[in-house]
Every structure is written in structure tokens, then in C-alpha cells.
Amino acid sequence: MVNESEASQTIEKLRTRYEGLNNEKIKVETQREHASNQLNTLKNQANELYGSDDVEQLKTMLEEMKAKNEAMRSEYQANLDGIDRDLLAINKKFSAPEGDPSQPPLEDQE
Question: pTM of the full predicted structure?
């Protein structure tokens, strides 16, 4: 809604308003162009790296990668747990019975 003082603006004020709005338009168009260029660059990179720039396909690929990484991490953890168990069993097997001061356990020997 326009009040009376806005309705009776001078031509100079109108020009100033126009220039401000025009500058804002130019700024927004420049930002839009920059964003569009950046989007195209990212799409090209996605195509080169993953063979697609489709967002849904990339999401699916990401979920598959996460699942594969989790499986590999879990396997790695299981392997380390197994090594720990084996080392503990070896240490128990070859360490002296408790209370025998003449034979320190292997873990204390260097």
C-alpha cells in the first residue's frame, strides 16, 4: 500500500529508487550466474568421478559406499579382536604360573 508521501515522490527520488533497485537486480543476476557456473562445474566433476550427476543416483551410490565401508570396518575390527584374543591366549599359555617369582610373564619381558 502506497501512502501520500510515497505517491508524490520527486523524479530525483524515483531515479534514486530505480538505481537502487537496478543495482540490486544486477547483483542478484551476478550471484545467480555464479551459482549456475558453480553448479555446472560440480555436475561435471560428479560425472567424471561417479559417472552421473543425478542427485538420487548419487545418493544411492553414497549409501552403497557407506555400507561397504561399514562392512570393511567391521571386518577389520573382527580381525583385530581375533589378534587380541590370540595374543592373550599365547601370553597365558607361555607365561609362568602366578606366584612363581622366578618366571615373569611374557608381557613384562622385553
Answer: 0.57
